[in-house]
Amino acid sequence: MTATDPALTALAQGWCALSLLHGKIEAHIERALQAKHDLSVREYSLLDVLSRQHNGEGGHLQMRQVADAVVLSQSATTRLVTRLEDRGLLERYLCPTDRRGIYTNVTTAGQKLVEEARPTNDAALREALDEASVRPELAPLVRVVESGTLLPT
Q1: 148 Ramachandran zone, left/alpha/beta (phi>0; psi -120 to 50)
Q2: What is the DSSP string of 86-100?
Q3: For position 3, what pLDDT does the model report?
């Protein structure tokens, strides 16, 4: 393959379109969450992931799993957790069966905030997708996102 190969060009164009769509969505949601809830997209994502944990065996995520779920490095996730912990939205505790493991729970205040922010997030996502759907290079990607076919089964 060369740099002018049509397959490579199509691949690069597809990647650029996907990156553009992601950036537009994230920026739109960021503005809405900051304005209404003083939350960043990353903070909301972390609270959302942690608020969906369940009690019982295997129901809590360790920091490594949290990092994977919010697509951040472990060090960035730790810094984010610390910021939210300082705001009283999260709390950490040692795993009762493995003292090396650290779990993170959403506090009552964090649960309340994420529940208040969820409709804002969802509405901003819908608005960003609607705006992107009128752009010919983004419309196919919007349809894929809307179809939910990217979700694991």
Answers
A1: left
A2: HTTSEEEEE-SS-TT
A3: 56
